[in-house]
Amino acid sequence: MATRLLDCRWRYAGAAPIDFRAMVSEQSQSGGHYLVGLDLRGRRVVVVGGGSVAQRRLPNLISAGADVHVIAVDPTPAVESFPGIAVTKRAYADGDLDGAWYVMACTDDPAVNAAVVAEAERRHTFCVRADDARSGTAVTPASGRHRDIQFGVLAGGDHRLSAALRAAIGRALADGSLVVEDTAPHAAGVALVGGGPGDPDLITVRGQRLLAEADVVVADRLAPPELLAALGPQVEIIDAAKVPYGRAMKQEAINDVLVSKAQEGKFVVRLKGGDPYVYGRGFEELQACVAAGVPVTVVPGISSSIAAPASAGIPVTHRGVTHEIVIVSGHVPPGHPDSLTDWPSLGKLRGTIVLMMAVERVEVFADALLAGGRAPETPVAMIENGSLPTQRVLRTDLAHAAEVAGAQGLRPPAIVVIGEVAGFTEGAL
C-alpha cells in the first residue's frame, strides 16, 4: 500500500496534478522523519501516561490490533475504561518497556518522558515523546483514511500544522476536490445511507464518502439536494421521491432498482433523509438485497426526530423533566385498522412524544392524547424544515395545536414535539 501511495498522481480539481514522488524525493534530501506503516497486530505497545494525549492515541492503536498496555498514576476515566487495553495504575519504572515493539511517552512530567525515551533507546525500540516530538525517536503522524487508503502527515514535529493539513486533505478527498485518478471503482453492491435531517453538513463522514464513490444514487425527496448537486455527471441519479398525499415511487420498484443496478456491476447508494431505519423502510430494502444475493451495508443517519427539535433549541430529554421519548408515526390515524399505536397509553405518558408524518392529522392525534389523559396545557412545538435555512417553529399547547397548525399553514416535512421540553427555549427554561 505504501508503494502505491507514492506512485499516485493526485490533483486538486481545476489545478495541475501534484506528483508525490517528487515530494518524497525532496523530503529525503532535506532529512527529517521516515514515514512508515507499522504492523502492530498482537504486538506489545506501551503507553506511559493516561491523560488526554494518551486518550487520543488509543483508538488508532486498538484499530491496528496492538496489544496496548497503559502505565499511569492517575488515568482519566476514559483511558481507564477504554476497551481492549490493559491499565496499570502506578508510576513508570525502568523495565516497563520489556518486550515492547513501540512506546509512547505521554505524561505531563518531562523528566519521566525523557526516562522513557532513554529506556526505549537502550532497547532499540522506537518511542514517541508527546511533549517534545524532536526528542523522541519516532513521531506520530496526523493520520486519516479515505476508502481503503490511510494517509499520514508529518510537519517536522509541528502537530498543529500536520493536523491542519490532515484535515484539509480529508475534506478534499471527501468532497472530490482532491481526486485520486487511478482509484479502482467501488465493488458492486448497495449502501443504505442516512442523509440526515436536511442540512447537507449533517450527513455522516462515512455516508459522504460512500456517496462520492457511487455509480448510481437512488434518492428520496428528503435527501439533502445539495449532496446530489455535488455529484459528477457520470453518476446516475434516480428519483425515488414519496410526496406526502401525492405521487410516489412504489417501494417494490425501489427494491427492484437497487437490486438490478447492483447486479449490473454498479455501486448503488440509496440516499434517504434522516436515518434508514427510522420510518425509512430501510430494512425492507436490506431484505430485498439479501434475498437477491446483493452485498449491502447500512450507514446510520441523524434522525430528524431528534435533530429537528435540537435545531429549534428543544432537547427531547432533560434531567428531572422527562425520562422517556416515544417517536410515533402519523401515517395512519388512531383507530385505523393498520394502526399499531396504543394511543390511550400514550396519553398517560409524562415524557416527550415526537410525531413524524403527522402534519395532516394534528387534530386527531391531539384529540387522542387529550382523551388518554394528557393535559390540554401541555406544550407543543411544530418544527417545519428542521435544520434548513427555511426552518420555522410554531409553539402552542396541545389544546390549540391543530388550530395553530391550520392557521399558520404548517406543511411537511415537519416534526411535532409534545411535552414539557417543547416549551424550552435555548438559554432559558
Topology:
Blueprint: H1 2-7, E1 9-12, E2 17-19, H2 20-30, E3 44-48, H3 52-63, E4 67-72, H4 77-80, E5 86-89, E6 102-105, H5 110-122, E7 126-129, E8 142-146, E9 149-153, H6 159-175, E10 178-180, E11 189-194, H7 205-212, E12 216-219, H8 225-229, E13 236-239, H9 251-263, E14 267-272, H10 282-291, E15 296-299, H11 304-311, E16 325-329, H12 343-348, E17 352-356, H13 362-371, E18 379-384, E19 392-397, H14 401-407, E20 414-418
Parallel strand pairs: 3-4, 3-6, 4-5, 6-7, 11-14, 11-15, 12-13, 12-14, 16-17
Antiparallel strand pairs: 1-2, 1-10, 8-9, 17-20, 18-19, 18-20
Brief sketch in words of this structure:
With 429 residues, this protein is α/β, with parallel strands linked by helices. The chain has helices at 2-7, 20-30, 52-63, 77-80, 110-122, 159-175, 205-212, 225-229, 251-263, 282-291, 304-311, 343-348, 362-371, 401-407, and strands at 9-12, 17-19, 44-48, 67-72, 86-89, 102-105, 126-129, 142-146, 149-153, 178-180, 189-194, 216-219, 236-239, 267-272, 296-299, 325-329, 352-356, 379-384, 392-397, 414-418. The chain has 14 helices and 20 strands.
